[in-house]
Request: fold
Amino acid sequence: MENHHFIETPETPQADLRGLVLAGGWSHRMGQDKAALAYHGEMQSQYCFKLLSAVSQQVFLSIRKVQAQELAYQGLPQIHDVYENKGPLCGILSAMETEPNSAWFVLACDMPFVDLKILQLLAQHRQRDKLATAFWNPLQNSPEPLCTIYEPAMYPFLQEALAYGQGSPQKILKAHEADVVLLPLAEKQLTNVNTPEAYASVMRSHDSGKPFAR
Reply:
């Protein structure tokens, strides 16, 4: 694994950092909107919005236009997908085209173990001279693309990947020079919860008094 470093003294995040809550997925495996699930006493769309607001200049929800009036998204700034059926890459590109001179702190709505400390860690170690700053996900042996800061310089590489039908942000990060911050916390903190069984397991742990992000 190249271009990684261990955590040192934090630095102040740059001002031109905007946040993007990825919530435009179809949630087929879950059977219900993952952004409307409540792990922390409020819907994930709202919870993630508040988290990113603490580390970003401005935050938007990334959704499909048909979702705009749903309860989970009402009253919050939105960026609607410009492309169709391209997964997370669609949302990221749509945001970068809306504010091309900003970096985007991307967070998927289906990561219930992510907390403010994790986001602050990534923001404080943002590498402006890299294409992106990402955590290393040990469960996937790869940079984690859905809790990542994408710099404006990444845009043409994302567009190129889309043009060639390569819709995986994870593969794009692996192919280019993303600065990887090693996450000194439990592996599960970057876990996506995508199925009713996984959701039920998380909620059982919560009911038994175990905190989400420890």
